[in-house]
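Consider the following assembly input.
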Amino acid sequence: MMEFFDSGLGLSLIVFLPAAGALALFAFPKANEAAQKWTALVFSAVTALLAVIAAAVFDYGAAERFQFEVMESWIPAIGANYHIGVDGISLPLLVLSAVVTLLAVIYSWDHWEEPRNVRGFLALMLLLATGMNGTFAALDLVLFFIFFELVLLPMYFMIGIWGDGARRRIPVLGRTVTMRLYASIKFFIFTLFGSAFMLLGFLALYFRSGDFLGANTFDIPVLIALGSENAFGSGTFAFLVFGAMFLGFAVKVPMWPFHTWLPDAHTAAPTVGSVLLAAILLKLGSYAFLRISIPVLPDMARQWAPAIGLLAVIGIIYGSLACLAQTDVKRLIAFSSVGHMGFVMLGIATMTDVGFNAALIGMVAHGLITGLLFFIAGSMHHRYHTREIARLGGNQKLMPWMGGILAFTAMASLGLPGLAGFWGEFMSLLGAYRPLAGLSLSQFQTYMVIGAVGTVLTAGYMLWMLQRVNLGEPKEEWSGREFADIGRYEWLAWAPLIVAIVAIGVYPRIVLGATTDAVVNLARNAFGG
Amino acid sequence: MDLDYHALAPEIVVAATILLVLGLDVALPRRRKYWTAFAGVVGLTLAAVPLVTLALGGGPGARSMLGGGYVVDDFALVLKAVFIAGGYLVLLMSVSYIESDRYYQGEYYLLLLTSILGSLIMASSRDLITVFVGLELVTGPLFLLAGWRKGDARSNEASLKFFILGVLSTAVLLYGMSFLYGLTGSVTFEGIRTAGAGLLDSGAFRLAVLFTLIGFGFKITAVPFHFWAPDTYEGAPTPVTAYLSVGSKAAGFVGLLLLCYRAFPSVTEIWGPALWVLAALSMTLGNLTALRQDNIVRMLAYSSIAQGGFILVPFAAAAVTNDPLVIQEAASATIVYVIIYAFMNLGAFAVVIEGARRTGTSMIDGWAGMWRYAPRLAVLGAVFFFSLAGIPPLAGWYAKFAMFLAILRPGNPWTAALAVIAAVNAVIALVYYARVGKTMWMDPLPDGASDGERTARPMSGALALALGISVIFVILAGVLPFQLAGVFAEAAKVVTAGI
């Protein structure tokens, strides 16, 4: 097994098996839904299993090193390579991505949105998985760009075809639109806008790298090595490049004020789409900060840090306040993501190993918790056919298990100690208390205080939502109705998430054990000391 | 005068095919005229054979004829291959379309093949006279083809507009060329390059360069010389439009590449800014106008104007540097873009032809819910239109990527500004390309249409073949662009040699 992974074959399979599965689906006639479900299950299960084995054979003693590397020539004309590998930073996210995809396939087993098209939906989901896994494994800027963009088309179609058909008036446009159409194209355009500039930044790095190496390179480890000598400096060039990449990554995170695509996309997407969006797609941006922006342009990262921190805390407060005003369960969870990703970005903005660790455990926790929340919201919508908080109520009485899991997840989301959500928020605030030397202490401590207020607000809206949805008596309209509690496939999909939330909550070393050495190394290389 | 018959073999085969088609058209009874199409397809396939033998057995050095005015080198070979492949796809797309009209089939293929012959000549031309002959041979037949549907007023309008503006542009081009000859005393590109270096301060020389550029500006439908394109594209039979937007446009770009890189390298400060402006205007106006189109052919017309802008972008990079490697990369980026564009745009037009046949309309809204009755066509439509938008892993991404790579290389503020304009335009373009995908996949079937109604008639085999070839190219070139990039770097070396 070791050789299998050390040769890099295992990692390549984790990246490309899902896409192969998407093709394999077309081996069966469209009507044979069972065969398609099983194919998707097998491919995603093998992928997830490989990811878990990869985590098991990963050498944690050398987590700062890239492991399972593959380096093959891909586009020699421009020196772009098929270079993949994982280190302590990407490993947890890769496992998260592979496992959540499997859970999404399981959940889909008996949840199909109209128009029913099992094969199409599963194919898009598997294609999406290749894009996500590939982004976390890519160690070449061109490859990274390809995978980063590869997620766009499947998600666009997923939201646009199977999304929420409700019509809503959009004040900015001045007209009424079908939500799924509006949300899907908005998601696409926002992300593409960011990534177009991100690409310009990548190319600028590529050209400048030639000044130091003699040959231009897209190779991320080489660029990181250049960055640790601060080769790109802190002049206008570095400023523009960081800014261009910032646009691409910040839209994806999304950071305030680039977040407006998120509530629409999350709310309109079909359940599985929301889960994958929240659990994994949002991580692509924050991961890219840790993988590319900061190690390659450390001086610029330090200069931008106060601004990133400011946008992060605005995101925290804005997200929480917006949650208080939501009447739709799904939209509320979507806005809570803006707040949670704010904590992740605040951690990153501190530019310390503590902050980076906070960001990574925050990303994993948010992936598990918000993923689960969207699953629950989807299942409840499936039963009540509404997501209006005002019409729900007494859920605990109607569906005791569902209510219990919802309460558990909401507690995890608001950062209850002992559950996964706690560590990200706590460590991020801790990092802000003592940011990187040279950053304004008072400024970051102000951010910390504002962030702490944000945790209170988060607790506020989550508990308030719980009170309105779960507690009290069921509304009149549901009287005499029987609701099926959590079903078999729902249990299968949710149980691993619940276990992981508790496990990481009590034993955060599951994540930190992989990440700590890597982020310490990252901070040391980038900022010395 | 020595002629190298091996080097000329592709042209000779196509010319022979033209004569054969002419003969068949006279000899065959009306209902068997489809044999002319068959002859055309076979002829073009045969024309590709000497290309392969030339490429394999070429050896060092180019084959040069007619006093250096006609050259078969790597550049010519690559582009001839593209022209033949593109022409082949257009022929395949034409078969069922033209057959359903049931008249003048023979003449149609005759004219189309003549135009393809012209583009083959363009690729080899290395003096003003051959360029001109090639270009007119490309365009002349298209005036007639654009007006093919005689009974249709729009088709007549298409032809007339195209003809008038085509003649105007030819006049401008010839005017510029006559100045060039008068000032430099030479018609060959080499001669103009040598003599031009001593004419930098001559106002007449600068004017002559500008006139030639404007002449080609019409051919490549660069804004502001694009006015004929949308009406002509809409009115002409769709396969002809496909050819116009790909074959004749690529021929224009070949001419522009040769002139800028081989004849005018000494006056980059004239054509550099001029093409910078043309590129920025074409991308921006083409895209903004395409956003407002409801007819899919018109949308593709404006989109092809915008794509032409993207293809022009690398020229601006070549103009601001003396580094031969940068110039070579710019030429290579243009060639790569032209080729990828050719395949994805032809694919898109093939989808349009089939979609219009199925739905009976080329209004975008009429295609709503297409995935229900034609799922394969809807998949292909999504592939080609998102490839045009440049979304990985479809081939279009590499075209845009190579373009960005070339324009950012010089590290000059002006070229960087053009890169930003191109980046913004890439996003705008997504909006209208995605609209086609949205309509086919996300909109409900229009009222009164049933699923079954539109499934009845299967696609013609020739069109299916054209779609298959383009889709394979678009996916392979997107995932493994390296072969492509390598071949075109060779071609670019040749065109930029000696700068």
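Chain A has one domain: 2-527. Ask yourself how this observation constrains the way the partners meet.
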